[in-house]
Write a structure and sequence with these properties.
alpha/beta; Rossmann fold; five-stranded parallel beta sheet; 12% strand
Length: 146
């Protein structure tokens, strides 16, 4: 039997590699194209938007990008086919549990883990430390972009 491919949850850091001319931009674009070729549904917590736009602003403030480049990336970002999931009580409670499992003091990254776990989705991140801690906690649905 052919099962539909698992949904996706992509970390904001991976999305920044796709949007910006960072060292691994081409590999990130290729990975995203591969992941999306089977029309897999893509989900993100609402905080994802804030994290991505904040990352673009950081590049602008650091002089890596000018205002026009950030604006262009923001326009492309809003066109992505992502379904935003509100951080409701059950998701935040699960994120709190995940933060304990992976040894985090804050729950931002754990919201992604909780969402992916809830959706039986693959979670892709460029955060090696998060990936390693998630693997140690048994989160086999977490994948590392490197």
């Amino acid at each position: 039997m052919n099962w539909p491919p698992a949904p996706l949850v992509l970390d904001a850091n991976l999305c920044l590699y796709v949007l910006a001319p960072l060292p691994q931009h081409d590999q990130a674009v290729e990975l995203l194209a591969t992941l999306m070729q089977y029309e897999r549904p893509w989900y993100a917590p609402a905080l994802w938007r804030v994290e991505v736009i904040s990352g673009l602003r950081k590049m602008e403030a650091a002089g890596m990008w000018d205002n026009d480049m950030v604006q262009e990336a923001t326009v492309r970002f809003w066109e992505w086919p992502v379904q935003i999931v509100a951080e409701e009580r059950s998701l935040l409670e699960a994120a709190l549990r995940w933060s304990r499992r992976v040894g985090q003091r804050v729950i931002y990254d754990s919201v992604y883990l909780a969402l992916a776990d809830h959706l039986d989705a693959e979670f892709w991140t460029a955060d090696r430390r998060l990936y390693q801690h998630a693997q140690q906690a048994g989160a086999t649905f977490v994948h590392l972009f490197s």
